[in-house]
């Protein structure tokens, strides 16, 4: 599991560690790691380290200090180093003298000439944890002129560390070396796509950090939670999932949602709705009926995809919410809950609910997402006493207690029509198997993305093929676990 802390929590932990370490030791440790990564990048890119040329972009604070110290360490390995100072009066004094002592060259940003274009590697020490807003014009102009790969110190300058928002010019790095802990920007879209490979360096903060603010599931975490049938299981004991989705207008949504559920776990899937014939034709193993009252018992209901928003759909959502089992409400079910607040009264108190809006559905329900997706989703989860999964390049999942998972895809394969229907079927299957709602949603997001990647393998892919790749995604997990 990858754990993520906001900048204020990291600063607080840093203060504790700084108070008991020798002055400057933490920075030198961080900077040494940057120099090691820089040397590796030089060797991989140019075949050697000695004699190569690294340009440091140095801002007004400790992030620039890291870059200056890294430059001093690189000098010891025979690398030519030029530091470009964006704020000469504020450049980190000890870092600057260390670089000068080591034989590094120092130039002012306004006198930079062709220096950025002559580099084999650029180190971005413009701004780190204190970053606010996009790059300022002088920094943006420098970055624009750099043609070599960029190694970002702590984070690519110009992105917002806590929200991952990119509201102006920003560095796009080939790699990022970060210290002490992952920060939200490393896992949130769009900033995460500016980081390149992220390398975390231990500087002794972990014991002081406490509980993380956000988590990211690894394959192993998903593998240990996925329901596999045990020897004593039968088709009922693994949890029966019910699908109340689709209809005569959108029978495809019924099929796709059912596919997600059928292919995620063994056991039984029931379908209730006017697309029963279409579902039965595609999945003969599904117990399909025309109405909810004939559906029989289930351990979780999935509702919403392709349901429409007419009065019949509203009644379906009302009945499902009143059934006393976990519910996942997607698409039109979210729209109905937004448009008819009285529907909330139907919810059997205490039964788990997972809401899976995309951004427009989220806006209808809880207002504009804004730049801070994690804050918006956490607030909605508290307000509705539900797990909320906001879809996107970074899918954000929060529960009412403030636990948050992020799943960053970095690719757009899952962004295809009907793909959300498949996701809700997967979540339903995991909920019915008894997995806690937060984990059901987070594992489903992971599994869905993995299936999309497998199905796509480099080409566009429709939602039905994403569903068909779910077994391969599960098998892949078992192999890697
Ligand atoms: N604490 C520690 O022990 C350790 C800390 N470490 C390192 O320290 C870093 C944090 O350093 P920090 O707090 O000094 O601030 P930092 O991020 O360098 O910003 C400097 C100044 O930049 C400015 N600025 C703001 N936005 C901007 C923008 N968009 N574009 C351009 N400029 C912008 C703003 O100054 P202003 O111009 O507004 O006065 C701001 O004050 C951290 O990320 C890590 O690298 C490591 O060494 C490990 C040990
Ligand atoms: K930086």
Automatic annotation (TrEMBL):
It catalyses: (6S)-NADPHX + ADP = AMP + phosphate + NADPH + H(+); (6R)-NADHX = (6S)-NADHX; (6R)-NADPHX = (6S)-NADPHX; (6S)-NADHX + ADP = AMP + phosphate + NADH + H(+). Pfam families: Carb_kinase (PF01256), YjeF_N (PF03853). Belongs to the NnrD/CARKD family. Belongs to the NnrE/AIBP family. Residues 218-477 form the YjeF C-terminal domain. Homotetramer. (6S)-NADPHX binds at residues 62-66, 128-134, 154, 253, 306, 358, 421. Its EC number is 4.2.1.136, 5.1.99.6. K(+) binds at residues 63, 124, 157. AMP binds at residues 391-395, 420. This is Bifunctional NAD(P)H-hydrate repair enzyme. The keyword Phosphoprotein does not apply. Bifunctional enzyme that catalyzes the epimerization of the S- and R-forms of NAD(P)HX and the dehydration of the S-form of NAD(P)HX at the expense of ADP, which is converted to AMP. This allows the repair of both epimers of NAD(P)HX, a damaged form of NAD(P)H that is a result of enzymatic or heat-dependent hydration. Catalyzes the dehydration of the S-form of NAD(P)HX at the expense of ADP, which is converted to AMP. Together with NAD(P)HX epimerase, which catalyzes the epimerization of the S- and R-forms, the enzyme allows the repair of both epimers of NAD(P)HX, a damaged form of NAD(P)H that is a result of enzymatic or heat-dependent hydration. Binds 1 potassium ion per subunit. Signal peptide: none annotated. Its cofactor is K(+); Mg(2+). Residues 10-211 form the YjeF N-terminal domain. Keywords: ATP-binding, Isomerase, Lyase, Metal-binding, Multifunctional enzyme, NAD, NADP, Nucleotide-binding, Potassium.
């Amino acid at each position: 599991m990858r754990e993520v802390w906001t900048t204020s929590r990291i600063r607080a932990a840093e203060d504790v560690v700084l108070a008991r370490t020798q002055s400057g030791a933490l920075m030198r440790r961080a900077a040494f790691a940057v120099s090691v990564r820089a040397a590796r990048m030089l060797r991989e890119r140019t075949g050697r380290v000695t004699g190569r040329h690294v340009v440091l972009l140095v801002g007004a604070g400790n992030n620039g200090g890291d870059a200056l110290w890294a430059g001093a360490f690189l000098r010891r390995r025979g690398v030519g180093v030029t530091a470009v100072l964006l704020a000469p009066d504020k450049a980190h004094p000890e870092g600057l003298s260390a670089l000068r002592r080591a034989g590094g060259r120092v130039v002012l940003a306004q006198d930079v000439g062709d220096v950025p274009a002559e580099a084999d590697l650029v180190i971005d020490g413009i701004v780190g944890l204190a970053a606010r807003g996009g790059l300022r014009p002088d920094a943006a102009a420098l970055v624009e002129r750099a043609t070599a790969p960029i190694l970002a110190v702590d984070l690519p300058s110009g992105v917002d560390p806590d929200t991952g928002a990119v509201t102006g010019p920003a560095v796009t790095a080939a790699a990022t070396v970060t210290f002490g802990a992952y920060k939200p920007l490393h896992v949130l879209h769009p900033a995460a796509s500016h980081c390149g490979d992220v390398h975390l360096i231990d500087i002794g903060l972990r014991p002081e950090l406490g509980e993380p603010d956000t988590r990211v599931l690894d394959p192993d975490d998903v593998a240990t939670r996925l329901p596999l049938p045990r020897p004593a299981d039968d088709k009922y004991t693994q949890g029966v999932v019910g699908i109340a989705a689709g209809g005569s207008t959108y029978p495809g949504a019924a099929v796709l949602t059912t596919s997600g559920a059928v292919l995620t776990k063994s056991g039984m899937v029931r379908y209730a709705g006017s697309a029963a014939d279409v579902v039965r034709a595609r999945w003969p193993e599904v117990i399909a009926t025309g109405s909810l009252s004939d559906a029989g018992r289930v351990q979780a209901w999935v509702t919403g995809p392709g349901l429409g928003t007419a009065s019949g759909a509203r009644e379906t959502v009302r009945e499902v919410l009143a059934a006393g089992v976990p519910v996942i409400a997607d698409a039109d079910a979210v729209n109905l809950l937004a448009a008819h607040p009285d529907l909330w009264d139907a919810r059997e108190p205490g039964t788990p609910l997972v809401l899976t809006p995309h951004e427009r559905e989220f806006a209808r329900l809880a207002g504009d997402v804004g730049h801070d997706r994690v804050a918006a989703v956490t607030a909605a989860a508290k307000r509705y006493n539900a797990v909320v999964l906001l879809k996107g390049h970074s899918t954000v999942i929060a529960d009412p207690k403030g636990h948050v998972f992020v799943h960053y895809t970095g690719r757009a394969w899952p962004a295809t029509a009907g793909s959300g229907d498949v996701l809700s079927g997967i979540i339903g299957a995991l909920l019915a198997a008894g997995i806690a709602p937060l984990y059901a949603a987070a594992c489903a997001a992971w599994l869905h993305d993995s299936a999309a990647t497998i199905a796509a393998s480099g080409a566009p892919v429709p939602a039905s093929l994403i569903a068909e790749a779910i077994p391969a995604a599960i098998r892949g997990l078992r192999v890697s676990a």
